[in-house]
Amino acid sequence: MSCLFCKIVSGEIPATRIYEDEQTLAFPDINPQAPTHILIIPKNHLASHAHATQDDTAILGHLLHAAGEIARQQNLTNGYRLVINTGPDGGQTVDHLHVHLLGGRPMNWPPG
Q1: 41, 5 Cβ separation under 8 angstroms
Q2: Which of 72, 109, 67, 70 is nearest to 84 (CA)?
Q3: Which residues are catalytic?
Q4: Has this prediction a pTM greater than 0.90?
């Protein structure tokens, strides 16, 4: 598959694996927007949140669970932000669902 994140999952493209389990993989964002900026992806390709169906409910919940585990491992005790960009207007640049975990500094609102 030509998907950048699928190539990371397969090991074709190297990445520092921050967290991994049977369903998800997490690695640092190459363009960090906070001191901690980690991407959490499902190992199976899902283009975006907009493409998710009822059958994807379990992986959507698992992504959020993994984000909490990673936040604890990263010692983000003062809080963190989770972001899912969807589609071009939502800022999605890789067509593979991913959750951004941002932390290590105060977050502003509105985000952009």
Answers
A1: yes
A2: 67
A3: 98
A4: yes
Asked if the structure places residue 111 within a domain, the reply is: no
CA distance 98 to 90: 13
| Domain count across the chain | 1
One-letter amino acid for residue 106 of the chain:
P
Q: Is residue 99 part of a domain?
A: yes
Rounded to 5 degrees, what are φ and ψ at 38?
A: -120, 140
- Contact between 96 and 4 (Cβ < 8 Å): yes
Length of the chain in residues, anyone?
Answer: 112
Cα(49)–Cα(97) distance, rounded to whole angstroms?
6
Per-residue pLDDT of the chain (112 residues; tens, 9 = 90+): 689 999 999 999 999 999 999 999 999 999 999 999 999 999 999 999 999 999 999 999 999 999 999 999 999 999 999 999 999 999 999 999 999 999 999 999 987 6
